[in-house]
Amino acid sequence: MTEKDTFSLTMDHKQGFEFDVHFDWDHVPTLLMDEPEPIGHKKGPNAARILGAAVGNCLSASLLFCLDKAKMELKGMKTEVLGFKKRNDKGRLRVVRLDVHIELEVEGEKPQRVGRCLDLFEDYCVVTGSIRKAIEVNVRVTDPHGTVLMEQ
């Protein structure tokens, strides 16, 4: 297996529900994770928020990659993720849905190339493709004026 096929991280317990996460890239700073009150102190994101960030980042990066390949000049991109939790049959909290909104602004009018990327980018998102069978992921892409370019 190559570096492209694997990744690793380590987590060191600090105190309470705080963990320092160390990634397998030495130049990446340590990430502090914590739980919200009442069990934690919100000193860092919890696992559900990291999951949402992973989905939002992966979708955004996949779209950006396609736009770059299509030689589209990006003027701006903003991604928001709204996560929903619900108790399962055993009363355990689960992330059941993530709504991802990507606001996209590209230079010039090249709707065919943007449209092609909007048709393709979700299929290349490793994280979303990996969790979609267990968690509903809804994706909406708009322009800065709120016009819906894609919704799924």
Explain what the structure shows.
This protein is of the alpha+beta class and about 150 residues long. The chain has a domain at about 45-150: GMP Synthetase, Chain A, domain 3, CATH 3.30.300.20. The longest helix has 23 residues, at about 45-70. The model has no long low-confidence stretch (mean pLDDT about 95). The chain contains three helices and seven strands. The two termini are about 35 Å apart.
Offer a concise description of the structure:
The protein is an alpha+beta fold. The chain contains 3 helices and 7 strands; from the N terminus they run E-E-E-H-E-E-H-H-E-E.
Topology of helices and strands:
Layout: E1 9-13, E2 19-23, E3 31-33, H1 47-69, E4 74-87, E5 93-106, H2 111-120, H3 126-131, E6 136-142, E7 148-151
Parallel strand pairs: 5-6
Antiparallel strand pairs: 1-2, 2-3, 4-5, 6-7
Essential attributes:
152 residues; alpha+beta; GMP Synthetase, Chain A, domain 3; 3 helices; 26% helix; 34% strand; globular
Helix fraction by DSSP (H/I, runs of at least 4):
25-40%
CATH architecture heading of the domain at 47-151: 2-Layer Sandwich
Unreliably modeled segments: none
Structural class of the secondary structure composition? alpha+beta
Number of strands: 7
The CATH topology of the domain at 47-151 is GMP Synthetase, Chain A, domain 3
Average predicted local confidence, pLDDT: 94
Instruction: Tell me the radius of gyration.
Output: 18 Å
Order of helices and strands: EEEHEEHHEE
